[in-house]
Design goal:
By secondary structure, the protein is of the alpha+beta class. The chain is built from 14 helices and 13 strands.
Length: 369
């Protein structure tokens, strides 16, 4: 019986293919909902894409439609297609469209007002920041404004991928475009927890990238600071070919505009709260010129040996071959930061120590061979 274990995943894949029959990706796109969709710039390309069933995870997502996320391939590239919400959200959206929305009646000011509604998962620090974001996204006609209105009612993530673009070296997926109510992104790899058994040097390289990403989201854009508020191993993907990192879920966050009139010295310090796994206060972040929120999140939720569930036991840097005590002492300082030791300088020190450890191990020489 044990020799037939391979029949289980094979049978699941075969069943999924049979049951989905001739259904195509265009069939699930809800393109008929346009102009109250996300767009249609990728629909013609999507005609040549096919569902992907080469793992049990992809079978589950494609067949059972878990989270309204689908996996596909196109011209040798692996894609992730996101509807960005569940059916209940779309049902409410359709009611709003039927009652009051008219494409030609939507104005940019309506979008700014919608984005300023901080009851949503995504928080803009003020109306000026919302205005900045809308202006950063090209939209010229009523159809495109209707698309933006739809996205802002559902999920802001694709709009952020158009501002923080992978082509500009941001640690996010490449964004291909839209078809109906599907946003099409690059498949960046496996969830962070799936690197648990990788060699420690690979995990140290990933840890270094996570801290670099925290810095970049905080101070790498000339107009915005993006503070991530759903920092989970499920929302970080790792490419197992080159061990590069991408943040693949940007739905939850705080966006702060960078303004010349902000106080030069007002920095927000994230208070460690032992009873809370990850507490933050949007108003405090927004009242500052800059916050250490992203650095704290990476140290506490990913790197610390006491990182809480759902992070892997012992944190990303568990089971080092030769225990670098100073490294873990610095990480714990980054978490607890007694006397408000600046986490920005701590992060730079941790990053340099990781680089030194990897260089001493010849990691980058081996990686480039």
């Amino acid at each position: 019986m044990s020799r037939l274990w391979w029949l289980v995943p094979f049978g699941a894949c075969l069943l999924a293919v049979i049951l989905t029959g001739n259904k195509t990706l265009l069939d699930i796109s809800e393109r008929s909902s346009c102009p109250f969709c996300y767009g249609d710039d990728f629909c013609s390309a999507l005609e040549n894409a096919t569902f992907q069933y080469n793992s049990l995870q992809k079978v589950a997502f494609n067949f059972v439609s878990v989270k309204n996320v689908f996996f596909a391939q196109l011209d040798g590239r692996e894609l992730v297609l996101k509807k960005l919400a569940d059916c209940a959200v779309f049902s409410l959206l359709n009611q709003d469209v039927f009652r009051e929305a008219k494409p030609k009646a939507i104005k940019q000011e309506d979008l700014v007002t919608l984005l300023s509604d901080n009851r949503r998962h995504f928080h803009t620090c003020n109306r000026a920041t919302a205005q900045q974001l809308i202006q950063a996204i090209p939209s010229k006609n009523s159809k495109e404004l209707a698309n933006l209105w739809t996205l802002l009612n559902v999920n802001v993530e694709p709009l952020l991928l158009e501002v923080f673009r992978k082509e500009h070296k941001w640690p996010v997926p490449h964004f291909f475009g839209y078809c109906g109510r599907l946003a099409v992104e690059e498949n960046c790899g496996v969830p962070l927890n799936e690197v648990q058994l990788l060699h420690w040097n690979h995990r140290a390289h990933i840890a270094l990238q996570l801290l670099q990403a925290a810095d970049k989201f905080t101070s790498g854009h000339e107009e915005f600071r993006l503070y991530l508020t759903d920092v989970s191993p499920d929302n970080v993907a790792v490419n197992l070919q080159d061990f590069s990192v991408a943040f693949v879920d940007l739905e939850h966050g705080i966006l702060q505009g960078i303004h010349s009139d902000q106080p030069a010295t007002l920095a927000h310090y994230t208070q460690y709260m032992p009873e809370e796994e990850f507490a933050f206060f949007s108003d405090s972040v927004c009242a500052s010129r800059i916050s250490d929120h992203n650095i704290y999140a990476v140290c506490r939720l990913f790197l610390s040996p006491a990182a809480p569930w759902p992070m892997m036991l012992g944190g990303l840097l568990h089971s080092p071959q030769a225990a670098p005590e100073r490294l873990f002492s610095l990480i714990e300082l980054c978490v607890h930061s007694p006397n408000e030791i600046p986490r920005f300088s701590l992060s730079r020190t941790i990053q340099q120590l990781l680089r030194d450890l990897l260089n001493d191990a010849g990691y980058y020489n081996l990686k480039n061979e």
